[in-house]
Amino acid sequence: MDKAKIRARTRGAVVAAAAAALALTLTACGGDGGGKPKGGDKASTPPAASGGKNTPSGGPSTQSTEVLATISGTDGVEVVINSAKRDTGGFVTVQGVVKNGSKNLFSAPGWQGGEQELRSNGASMAGAALVDKAGKKRYLILRDTDGRCLCSQFTTGIQAGEEAPFYTQFPAPPTPVTDVDFQLPTMPTATIKISG
């Protein structure tokens, strides 16, 4: 074989190898739409309903009139827990109402908890937890892949003298566990009963 043919073959092999490496590199960098969730820019919860009263964003909306616990905080703020239901998906949904009996706007200071990821939830119930004292386990609020809590967010706060419904979702304790403590930063603890 003469030297010209060998050079041509070698050059062709180098070009083919470079093309294959480039194709492999581009495939690895392809991604899934720029890091956005598959549903576009949709939040994990639907936006708050518009209206005169403050409404927390997203989540379950049916409210029970039964009262499992009332937690009285400082400055006339109360958390009334109406239900704690075990769902088939392996989680517990706690629902109720936050009442602002103060003379000032209530923006849930500290309720988002101390964890860095949860602090970005702003005025919310993100710092809530359920505690199974018998099983010695603490269940933190569920969150989506972007770190948003599966809980109510009070984006505009709660006006003086008004109330807003809330929901929080947690991993479910084992089925025999029904009595748990509901904890919310800056508020006293309340024992509630899980149904379902």
Description:
With 196 residues, the chain is α+β, with helices and mostly antiparallel strands. It has 2 domains: 1-28; 69-193, Immunoglobulin-like, CATH 2.60.40. The radius of gyration is 26 Å and the shape is globular. It has helices spanning 3-28, 116-119; strands spanning 69-72, 77-86, 91-100, 129-132, 137-140, 163-171, 179-183, 190-193. Helices cover 15% and strands 26% of the residues. A hairpin with a 6-residue loop joins strand 7 and strand 8. The protein has a 4-stranded antiparallel β-sheet with strand order 1-2-3-6, with no helix packed on it. The protein has a 4-stranded antiparallel β-sheet with strand order 5-4-7-8, with no helix packed on it. It comes from Streptomyces sp. NBC_00060. Residues 32-64 are annotated as: Disordered. This is Secreted protein.
What is the structure about, briefly put?
With 196 residues, this protein is an alpha+beta fold. Helices cover 15% and strands 26% of the residues. It contains two helices and eight strands, in the order αβββαβββββ.
